[in-house]
Design goal:
With 758 residues, the protein is α/β, with parallel strands linked by helices. 45% of the residues lie in helices and 16% in strands. The chain folds into four domains: 5-176, 2-Layer Sandwich (Beta-Lactamase); 180-203 and 326-425, Phosphohistidine domain (Glucose Oxidase, domain 1); 215-320, PtsI, HPr-binding domain (Enzyme I, Chain A, domain 2, Orthogonal Bundle), CATH 1.10.274; 434-753, TIM Barrel. It contains 29 helices and 22 strands. An eight-stranded mixed β-sheet has the order 7-14-13-9-10-11-12-8, with helices on one face. It starts with a helix and ends in a 5-residue tail after the last helix. The chain binds phosphoenolpyruvate and magnesium ion. The site of magnesium ion has 5 residues, from α24.
């Protein structure tokens, strides 16, 4: 028996090298291969089964009857060989017949052989065949022998793929296609539908050459790749800068641990000793890890193994010189991007015209990348498990995040249904687009202002596309979120000016930065921050800005400079008590003073607003309203605080309705108060972008809605089909004595009145 896997594999690989280089036909090559392996492993039997036409066919053997070649066939999952291929797992048995899946095939004459060891021949993480050895004596195989078989299987995979022996149309992936689409379930992060080809953010490397010409040279390549990888990881951890990689600190720490793990580099080295190329050695070790991964029950440990898998892919990309992300290589066609996680800056690198959707293994509703994807209008599905096992690069994918689903390699029937749904959506959008130049006026002649929420420079285009009345909420923190370092005052000023210029006569309401809590900026050293248990209720938005006024002063100056000669609309987030508004206003006024003293150009006028997001403010609104030029209700935060229900918690997402009497009555009270003080009041939360909700809002007296751009057409259609003289009294009556199901009543009212809800 061989003493080490390296020497055993090496002996076989040396033989294989010659076979692969020879001009012989594929069948002849495989006949030689089984002989070489059997001799090296001193086994009575060595056989190769290949997956052809969906079944595993005995393709070459020594030891079994030659008559069985091309005759013995096993389905995936059938017998020992079928089990190995289906599970992409090893079998090591001292008594083959005792295995529950053992299927006796008399034509092979295998009854005299007791022990059996088989390994899958893997291509693109799927089995395209099986390599098996058998002995007459009953014995379990050593790890070193199994390892040698796996190494050989890897080389065989190259030979088989190059010779086109395993029919591509009958690989496991295609079998899945024949048996219908795989449906992956996830969490809707950004709603929408999209069709495209799977593109991995960090592409997987397909190994072209497995057998080394020069082992020492391969070793040096791996050493240098390890050095580079460690440098990269060190840099990422030390910077821990927002947006560099999109990985969390915790993952970076794990990367670091693995990057310096001596065991890992030693195993790769051993694989090189056995005669593999650097790429094949890394992949070989990784295959073993993946197989272990499948056996691990502990989710935490499995998670760590995923990290190692990620890192191995990085090492492979370094060693093969294919470093870029899919964004850097450029998208060639409509793409659904697949990633474990992404940073917002990484997402912004993609060509918007070709990026149709995103599927993440991680992701959460309030993650920065989600906010950016929403702003870009790219549907996004998160928390999808096992994407890398289920999806291959180039797979066709239908994404329907509204259903929380991604369909991989869809059947024709599914494809047709999807297309019909997509077309219906497009048709509806085209109808809405036709409303672009029509004003949002109700049937009884009330003009409602429909504005858009924005935050990125490109969002401004939405104004012209939708024909909206202006930007009702410009989330200035987006610039901070997508930047790797604190944006300088000059770059803030440039952004604001370009937005104001693009908006022309239409108003833009800038909200001062709402950072902190879940929108923390790692480059901003804010101690006390990390340990917040309830970040949404924490030290964020105006609270943070007033305590750290340097940031706010710079922003105020940038806003004033950018609005020179124009009207500046500025509002403050999360005002909880009137004094906070006073302080914020004084701070901006202080900057205006500073500029005035230096004879710098100033805005023609400044209009100050507050956001009502904290319920407590409603109780002192009579004190605040006289100081305000406008009030904007942020229903996203307001709802979570009214109901004490985290807005990012998936389990609570559907629990409380925006149309609950609690919210509607609260809003009615605020609108009445604002009206009595003659202060314009609007809504800038997501609620305003939903037709039925928006109908209730205008029924309550709201005349300004600032909404997500995609909803403008729909909301305009709703407004233009509504008669407020009927709706307003009806909504108020319903609120005075609320029915059990407010949503159902409002829906019935809309139907009765012929209101278009889309
Ligand atoms: C809100 O809370 O409703 C709001 C508009 O602000 P944001 O979603 O940015 O917190
Ligand atoms: Mg808010």
């Amino acid at each position: 028996m061989p003493t080490s896997s390296a020497s055993s594999a090496r002996e076989i690989l040396t033989g294989l090298h010659e076979v692969m280089a020879s001009k012989a036909a594929a069948q002849a090559k495989l006949n030689k291969v089984v002989k070489i392996i059997a001799e090296a492993m001193r086994s009575e039997v060595c056989s190769i089964y290949l997956l052809r036409d969906g079944v595993l066919e005995l393709y070459a053997t020594v030891g079994l009857k030659q008559d069985a070649v091309h005759v013995t066939k096993l389905a995936l999952g059938e017998g020992l060989v079928g089990t190995i291929a289906e599970d992409v797992a090893i079998l090591n048995l001292d008594e083959a017949t005792r295995h529950p899946e053992f299927a006796y095939r008399p034509e092979t004459g295998e009854e005299v052989f007791h022990s059996f060891a088989g390994v899958p021949i893997v291509r693109r993480e799927r089995a395209i065949g099986v390599l098996a050895v058998q002995h007459a004596e009953s014995r379990a195989y050593d790890d070193v022998e199994i390892e040698a078989l796996q190494t050989v299987a890897m080389v065989l995979s190259e030979l088989i793929a190059n010779a086109g022996l395993a029919d591509r149309a009958t690989t496991a992936a295609d079998k899945a296609r024949d048996s219908g689409a795989i449906r992956l379930q996830g969490l809707k992060l950004v709603s929408g539908m999209a069709r495209g080809t799977a593109v991995f953010h960090q592409p997987r490397i397909l190994i072209e050459h497995t057998v080394a010409e020069d082992t020492e040279a391969e070793r040096q390549r791996v050493y240098s790749a390890f050095r580079k990888m460690r440098e990269q990881i060190d840099q990422m951890t030390s910077q821990a800068e927002f947006g560099t990689a999109g990985e969390h600190q915790e993952i970076l720490e794990t990367y670091k641990m693995f990057a310096y793990d001596e065991g890992w580099s030693r195993r790769i080295n051993e694989a090189i000793d056995s005669g593999l190329t650097a790429e094949a050695a890394i992949e070989r070790v990784q295959q073993r890890t993946r197989m272990r991964m499948r056996e691990i029950d502990d989710p935490l440990l499995a998670e760590r193994m995923h990290d190692l898998d990620d890192l191995a892919n990085r090492l492979l990309r370094i060693v093969s010189g294919r470093l870029g992300t899919a964004a850097q290589m450029g998208l060639q066609q409509d793409a659904i991007l697949i990633a474990r996680n992404l940073g917002p800056a990484e997402l912004l690198e993609y060509d918007k015209r070709r990026l149709k959707g995103v599927i993440l293994e991680e992701g959460s509703l309030t993650a920065h990348v989600t906010i950016v994807a929403r702003a870009m209008g790219v549907p996004m599905l998160g928390r999808v498990r096992n994407i890398r096992q289920a999806i291959s690069e180039g797979d066709e994918i239908l994404l329907d995040t509204g259903e929380g689903a991604a369909f991989v390699r869809p059947s024709t029937a599914l494809d047709d249904a999807f297309e019909a749904k997509l077309l219906a959506g497009q048709r509806r959008r085209a109808e809405y687009a036709a409303l672009r130049d029509l004003p949002p006026v109700t049937k009884d002649g009330t003009r409602v202002s429909v504005m858009v929420n924005a935050g990125l420079r490109d969002d401004v285009a939405a104004l012209d596309v939708t024909g909206a009345d202006g930007i009702g909420l410009f989330r200035t923190e987006f610039q901070f979120l997508v930047s790797a370092t604190l944006p300088r005052r000059e770059s803030q000023q440039r952004l604001y000016k370009s937005v104001i210029d693009a908006a022309g006569d239409r108003p833009v309401i800038f909200r001062t930065i709402d950072i902190g809590g879940d929108k923390a900026l790692p480059y901003l050293k804010v101690e006390d921050h990390e340990d917040e248990e309830n970040p949404a209720m924490g030290w964020r938005a105006l609270r943070l800005a007033l305590d750290r006024d340097g940031l706010m002063k710079a922003q105020a100056r940038a806003l004033l400079e950018a609005s020179a000669g124009r009207e500046l609309n500025v509002m403050f987030p999360m005002v909880s008590e009137p004094w906070e508004f006073d302080e914020a206003r004084n701070l901006v006024e202080g900057q205006r003073q500073w500029l005035a003293e230096r004879k710098k150009p100033l805005p023609r006028a400044i209009r100050y607003g507050a956001m009502l997001e904290v319920p407590a403010l409603a109780e002192t609104l009579d004190l605040l309203l006289p100081k305000l030029d406008f009030l904007s209700i942020g229903t996203n935060d307001l709802t979570q605080f009214l109901f004490a229900a985290d807005r990012a918690h998936p389990k609570l997402a559907e629990r409380y309705d925006w149309l609950s009497p609690a919210i509607l009555r609260f809003l009615r009270r605020v609108v009445r108060m604002a009206n009595s003080h003659g202060v314009p009041v609007g809504i800038c939360g997501e609620m305003g972008g939903r037709p039925l909700e928006a109908m209730a809002l205008i029924g309550l007296g709201l005349r300004r809605l600032s909404i997500t751009p995609i909803a403008v057409g729909q909301i305009k259609a709703m407004i233009r089909s509504t008669d407020l003289s009927v709706l307003a009294p009806a909504v108020n009556t319903l609120l005075d004595a609320p029915p059990a199901d407010m949503r159902a009543e409002l829906t019935a009212l809309a139907e009765q009145q012929g209101v278009i809800l889309g």
